[in-house]
Amino acid sequence: MKRDIRVITPEKCEEFPRDEKEARSLDFKRAKFIVRKNFRSIAGSRRLGQIWLILDPLIVSMVYFFVFTVIRHNTNPASLFLGITYVRILQMGLRNGFNNSVDYSGGIKIERVRTRVILTSEYLLSATNTFFMCFGVSIVFAIFFDSNILETIALFLIAFPLYVMWYGIGSFFSPIGVRIPDTRALVSYFGMLMFFGSPALYSLGQTSGLHRTVCLYNPFSFFVEFARFYILDSEDYKLLDPNIAISYLIIFTLILGISIKRYDWNRWRFSTWS
């Protein structure tokens, strides 16, 4: 078996494969290993394992459903389930992106895996996590709210860029978590702020005053209200300013691009070599 020519410096590692086909095959195997490893780590010691990805948005939605629909009778159950699911996906993407600074090597000795393998595995895992989190809610929508297959697909297709966007934001700021470990605790508080400052529990049309003002400038609002428009025929998305949406799209695309570009430099600077 031919070995790659590997050049390692304090800043990065570059590999020049003698056989590109063999290199791609090896990269694919390593990416699969990393995805399986990280996906299994979600379960930890819990008996239900990865099923918790499905149960998490359902259980949280049921809690808020009881409070805001059964007790207070002032929110749409389908709208609430959709909002809670999306905000949980946002929080998971932000948390995973910020925490990726803990292990830039994917569990393999860092000098043995290229950056493109890590990035490929991260986005494959992102798609897997998003699919499982949407799966349980899509069943609820199909049974109780008569959603069709196109609406189920839309639920995932809108959720995936939401996850990737917030994963990119978390990844952009992740080096801070290495330098100042206490900042990792702030991520959960920021996720909570995004939750209560968004139209997750209520549709945008039900908000008023300062809450509506905050929601109008919350990037999460654009995702959830567009999903409500396509799946629930809500027209509250018309309250949002398309110019703000375009601005956010440009800003977050730049942040994601910078995160990807700096990923190789970050992993060689912050990862351990053991």
Please give a quick description of this structure.
The chain is mainly alpha-helical. It has one domain. The chain has helices spanning 20-41, 51-71, 77-99, 115-144, 149-179, 184-196, 209-216, 219-232, 242-270; strands at 5-8, 13-16.
What features would you highlight for this structure?
274 residues, mainly alpha, two-stranded antiparallel sheet, 2 strands, globular
Adjacency order of strands in the biggest sheet: 1-2
Helical coverage, percent range: 55-70%
| Percentage of β-strand residues | under 5%
Summed up, the helix count is 9
Number of strands: 2
Task: Describe the protein in words.
By secondary structure, the chain is mainly alpha-helical. The chain has one domain. It is about 70% helix and about 5% strand. The protein has 9 helices and 2 strands; from the N terminus they run ββααααααααα. About 5% of the residues have low confidence.
Give the helix/strand layout:
Blueprint: E1 5-8, E2 13-16, H1 20-41, H2 51-71, H3 77-99, H4 115-144, H5 149-179, H6 184-196, H7 209-216, H8 219-232, H9 242-270
Antiparallel strand pairs: 1-2
Helix pairs in contact: 1-4, 2-3, 2-4, 3-4, 3-5, 3-6, 3-8, 4-5, 5-8, 5-9
